[in-house]
């Protein structure tokens, strides 16, 4: 169904009121807008790649109870952001809102946090995809040993492919997003059915909803101490917090969406809600199939071990392939979102080389922004070449933490600014009304608490001063985010405040 010219005119008029001419092609439907965030959240990616984080830090309860609990908090964050994207439907999204409601300095730090998060989430998704593809090849191709170097090679190939798809596939990229939704829906359904009917035995309901593990190394493995409930278990919530993220993509492609003020707002919160329900069902199916606990523990909680110990070779490969393809779609969507945000931030002179990064080709594709983001993601993931002492992919979890911290801190700033504005805020057609206060404050507190946890060590070997301290086990997320923030602050005082004024209009009166 084609939108009427009036809708297109209204979208372009609203964009002009916000200060920009229509440069990106506006041909995304409301479903396509929803699809990109749903694809980036990707229950076929996060539920599998970070399953071990929850398994080792809390066990089944971190998943069966932790997932729905944290999902509710994330949905409240989504509601707060839906109101903002409805009022300000621009590709800049998060940093633009902060600039509008707070000023250039707020937009500057929000933009850089958002960019760091988007690059990190792109890198982590593609590395997760490489890990699963490596699992397929190890069980299929003779001579393929599945070493860390081979995984990294696959990661580079996947990252390059996603860059090429986004550069040359622009005419059909929105269609690919739609295909991704149905792959995730039907793929997840098939996996759940396989896990329900193929394994010879399953765990009981009591085990799934009450069993606790502590494989983190903290508190001497205790799963009943205060250390377990206040430190170890919250670390397991990274599974949910990482999986259900990247939903700001609805904002970043709003300049390409028809009827953006409503479509982007609805797409944002709906992508969270549907992913929360689908992801919980998928994770419960995994838990019920996790009967060989010692083997899964030996594999550091890797979800592939759950599948390998409960399924025959053929069904195991089928599930891994379904998940790998879903992760590939997810990474493709991440590059799309990241490149749009990079383009918009550069358009407002927020990045070095802004004139180059804000260019689009004749198809309306920000080619330079795509190349920049993929190369940055490659460098960010280099520590994944080193294996942690306990065999767990701590470098991968650190990249995940960078993504979570960067994205959610970027969400926090405009949410707090919205609360500060109060009745001075002029909402769009999708609004929270008076409920914005309670929703905004709950969202803000959750983000602050989560950000503190995800800069903490994941294992005792990563704690400075510990007798078993090993640099390979260090959670480098706070180092990476801290160094970048210091550099961004220095850049702001050196020259950023002179050339970044927030919104830089490129349309005449």
Q: Would you write up a description of this structure?
A:
The protein has 509 residues and is mainly alpha-helical. The chain has a single domain (24-499), classed as Amino acid/polyamine transporter I (Up-down Bundle), CATH 1.20.1740.10. It is built from 23 helices and 2 strands. The longest helix has 35 residues, at 104-138. It is globular and about 65 Å long.
List the helices and strands and how they pair.
Layout: H1 5-17, H2 30-41, H3 46-49, H4 51-56, E1 57-58, H5 60-64, H6 66-87, H7 94-101, H8 104-138, H9 148-168, H10 173-197, H11 205-210, E2 213-214, H12 226-236, H13 238-243, H14 249-252, H15 260-289, H16 293-298, H17 303-310, H18 313-347, H19 354-357, H20 367-380, H21 394-421, H22 436-453, H23 477-499
Antiparallel strand pairs: 1-2
Protein name: Amino acid transporter
GO molecular function, one term: transmembrane transporter activity
Pfam families: AA_permease_2
**Backbone shape:** globular
Largest sheet: 2 strands, antiparallel
CATH superfamily, by name, is Amino acid/polyamine transporter I
Q: Under CATH, the topology is which?
A: Amino acid/polyamine transporter I
- Describe the strand arrangement of the main beta sheet, using strand numbers: 1-2
Count of individual beta strands: 2
SSE topology string: HHHHEHHHHHHHEHHHHHHHHHHHH
Mean pLDDT: 89
Helix content: 55-70%
Strand content: under 5%
Descriptive keywords:
single chain, 509 residues, mainly alpha, Amino acid/polyamine transporter I, two-stranded antiparallel sheet, 2 strands, 68% helix
